Each structure stands twice: as C-alpha cells, then as structure tokens.
Write a sequence for this structure.
C-alpha cells in the first residue's frame, strides 16, 4: 500500500512539472543541507547556489536559495560542484525543486559551460573535450554520504562519472572525454520533463 501511495505521489509531481513553467540555471553549489520537512511524505533540503548562467529572465539574482523535496535521499545533484537545476514556483511564488531534476555541469571552457546527461547511452552528439584532469575526492565524499552502500570508490566513480564521458586516472582524479554544451543539455531536459521528447 505504501509503495502505491508513493507511486501516485511521484506521478502527481510529474504532472506538476509537465504543467508548470520550468525555470533553469547553471549554478555553483554553495551549500545543500537537510532541514525539517513540511510533512511526512517528503525530505526537505535547503539549497544555496551561485547563479552562473540563466535560461530564463525571471531568475534575476546572483545567488538563489530554494528548497528541494524528495521521498528518499535523492540529492545526487549535490555531488557535483556545478549543475543545471530545474525549478518550478510554488503557490507563494517561491522557487522550489521537486523530483530533483538536474544536469551535471563539469567545466567552463572558452566561456561555455559543458556537462553530460548520465542516462545518455548515445554519445554521438557529444563533443570530444580536452581539458586538465578533474580532482573529485571531495565530490566522492559527498556521494558516499548519499550512497553509503557503495563501499568501494570505483562504484561511486562509475555511478557519478560514467566511462562514456570520463577516463579513470586514479582514485581521486578523472579525465574528461565527451561533454555537451549546457544549452543543448537544457533543451533536451526540458523536452524530457515536458514529455515531448521524440
């Protein structure tokens, strides 16, 4: 019965996202902390992000504070230093994140932000990127908090830095292989969220 209730709640969140205007931005994580929830169905997180790039004119501040709501500890976005975060507005007009939609952003090269969609299996539309190795020790520490069942570092790297997009260098570093511009990733995610993806 509990699983059925959770299923219908998740479906209702999908409907909210598909019928609501979506606001998105590339942000640099300042803090993500769990706070007291508004009800018993959701975990609540208070997020503070520095706004690096906007996809919507309604995001006008250089720092954005918003709450995330999730049934489980689904805050994978917090592993990455940068991400595209997708928000809606609640009844009070405040930005909130439900279903924790995000896209990892990895680097800024020549003024352009680049990232990847972890679920992408086809990398033909990705660009081959050459850049210095990424030091991910701090990121993996955050990932271990979210997934304590992953005892070995290699499983965390596989989960958050898939081999389609990265080369393993050593236990704390990875090399970049394939990334896509933030603009393309944003457009694809909006289609996915809206249910219009071909």
């Amino acid at each position: 019965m509990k699983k059925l209730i959770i299923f219908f709640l998740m479906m209702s969140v999908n409907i909210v996202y598909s019928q609501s205007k979506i606001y998105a931005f590339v942000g640099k994580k300042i803090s993500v902390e769990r706070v007291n929830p508004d009800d018993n169905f959701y975990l609540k997180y208070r997020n503070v992000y520095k706004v690096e790039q906007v996809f919507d004119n309604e995001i006008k501040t250089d720092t954005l504070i918003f709450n995330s709501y999730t049934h489980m500890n689904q805050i994978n976005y917090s592993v990455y230093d940068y991400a595209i975060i997708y928000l809606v507005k609640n009844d009070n007009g405040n930005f909130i994140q439900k279903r924790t939609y995000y896209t990892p952003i990895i680097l800024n090269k020549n003024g352009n932000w680049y990232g990847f969609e972890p679920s992408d299996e086809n990398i033909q539309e990705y660009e081959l990127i050459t850049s210095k190795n990424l030091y991910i020790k701090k990121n993996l520490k955050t990932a271990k908090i979210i997934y304590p069942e992953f005892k070995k570092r290699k499983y965390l790297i596989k989960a958050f830095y898939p081999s389609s997009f990265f080369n393993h260098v050593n236990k704390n570093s990875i090399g970049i292989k394939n990334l896509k511009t933030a603009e393309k990733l944003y457009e694809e995610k909006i289609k996915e969220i809206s249910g219009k993806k071909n």
In short: Residues 93 and 186 are 23 Å apart (CA to CA). Confidence is low (pLDDT under 50) at residues 2-18. DSSP finds four helices and twelve strands in the chain.
